[in-house]
Amino acid sequence: MSDTAKEISGGQVFSPIVAFAMVGVGALSLLFYLLFSASAPDYSGEGDTRANAVSRSAVGFAGLAELLRLQGIPVLLSRGLDEAEFEKTSLVVLTPGMNNTATEIRDVTNVEPALIILPKWLASPDPLRSGWVRNVGLISEDRIGERLLGSDDGPATIRQATGTNPVTLNMGFDGTAMRPAPIESLQTISGAAWTGYVADEQGRTVLARMEGTETYVLSDPDLMNTHGLKDLATARVAMAVIQSIRSGNGPVVFDLTLAGYRRSPNPLRLAFEPPLLGATLCALLAALLMGVHAAVRFGAPVKSGRSLALGKQALADNSAALIAMAGREYRIASRYALAIRRRVARIVGVPTDTRDEELNALLDRLRRRNDTAQPIASILTEAERAEDANDALRVARKLYRWRRDMIHDS
Question: Residue 31 CB: number of other CB atoms within 10 A?
């Protein structure tokens, strides 16, 4: 392997700044994903084109909710409030569709006052403009009364006028008369269980109250839907009606459960709401501290080598490890001594075919130049008598000093 390749393989793949940035971005992305997943039910329905409080279409009531907010009246969109929360409200607004029933409307809440806004128009989504609708026609007046207003006293009767005509409304709550924008196919209500509250100049009721209750029914939704509120006169009528039936200064609640937007129990959402929010923040902080501690303590991973090394050095290391494992180091002391003697003899120029006795004698004559060196014959004898690792180590040290003295190695 070239030096360049070694340098590349041994270097860092990412700088610490890049690594921390990647981990931080990943952690924040995961946190935002969890937050948005938990809050997704509160933001669903933005493109709805049905008659409910999140719909911005002509038949929707998002405009009414915004109008109340602009008038300083608090507004809540209910996806399943409990009765204790409903008790704090000043008015509950129900906007059922033809897929609902009178039983489902009554099951939403028993809190009063309540305003039920009946549907009138058949509308289909506009394929060219998102959030818009196209008028398909009128809903059958018989179906509206039988399906949505059934009671023990018999269903209410719904009537739809023909054409678009100016309307003057007599406000039964204060005796005044107000004139909204002309309404197409004015839809009215009548029935034995219903008392007129707001009627036109012909006595036809558009806002009725169920006897013995504070439940009101607005028969014509064009007085409060987005299509009707585009006219200032109609908006004034809508505000006057709501202010007259409100009780107290609590929020006006628009129910969304009839449109299918009921909030289901969500453990993930509970983790980001009190009282569990504190525990979630502590867990996130603990995870952050653990990550910082691990990064600072351990640092970059150590590069691992080959499982099976190659070359003479690896063979020697493996052999030595095997001998040490067997506890037989001292058995190779004599052979090690003979190997050192042959090496020194080769360095000083002694012929390779010299016999052992002559070789020892020749080396001893060379030794006399340095009297501190021990005779090689005695070292060989001591190596043959080694009985444990300590004896072998002592012989190895003597051979090391003898070799240095013989070849004058400094």
Answer: 12
Tokens of 25: 């971005």
Residues 6+ apart with CB under 8 A from 275: none
pLDDT range class, residue 1, cuts 50, 70, 90: very low
Q: Rounded to an integer, what distance in angstroms lies between the CA atom of residue 214 and that of residue 112? A: 6
Dihedral angle over CA of 340, 342, 347, 353, nearest 10? 170
CA distances from 306 to 4, 8, 314 (A): 19, 17, 11
Contacts of residues 197-205 at CB distance under 8 Å and 24 or more positions apart, as own/partner, are 197/172, 197/173, 198/169, 198/170, 198/171, 198/172, 198/173, 198/241, 199/169, 199/170, 199/172, 200/167, 200/168, 200/169, 200/170, 201/167, 201/168, 201/170, 204/159, 204/161
* Measured distance between the N- and C-terminal CA atoms of the chain, rounded to whole angstroms: 35
Q: How many other C-beta atoms lie within 10 A of the C-beta of residue 165?
A: 12
Render pLDDT for 297-314 as a digit per residue (tens, 0 to 9): 665 666 777 766 677 888
Pairing of strands 75-78, 252-255: parallel
Residue-wise pLDDT for 197-241, tens only, equals 899 888 899 999 988 888 999 999 999 999 999 999 999 999 999
Top CATH class, 45-260: alpha beta
Residue 111 to residues 64, 82, 83, 214, 273: CA-CA distances in angstroms?
21, 11, 8, 9, 27
Alpha carbon distances (Å) from 397 to 40, 268, 343, 361, 370: 79, 72, 16, 22, 18
pLDDT top residue among 8 and 89: 89
Q: Which of 92-106, 273-287, 300-314 has the lowest mean pLDDT?
A: 300-314
Report how far residue 248's alpha carbon sits from residue 245's, in angstroms, rounded to the nearest whole number. 10
CB 260 within 8 A of CB 246: no
Peptide bond into 113 cis (omega under 30): yes
In the block, residue with structure tokens 């690896």: 314
d(CA 12, CA 3): 16
Residue 11 — very low, low, confident or very high, per pLDDT cuts 50/70/90? low
pLDDT tens per residue, range 135-185: 888 998 888 888 888 765 566 889 999 888 888 898 877 788 999 999 999
Annotated domain spans of the chain: 45-260, 312-407
In whole angstroms, what is the distance from residue 366 CA to residue 241 CA? 127
**Which residues, 6 or more positions from 36, have their beta carbon under 8 angstroms from its beta carbon?**
none
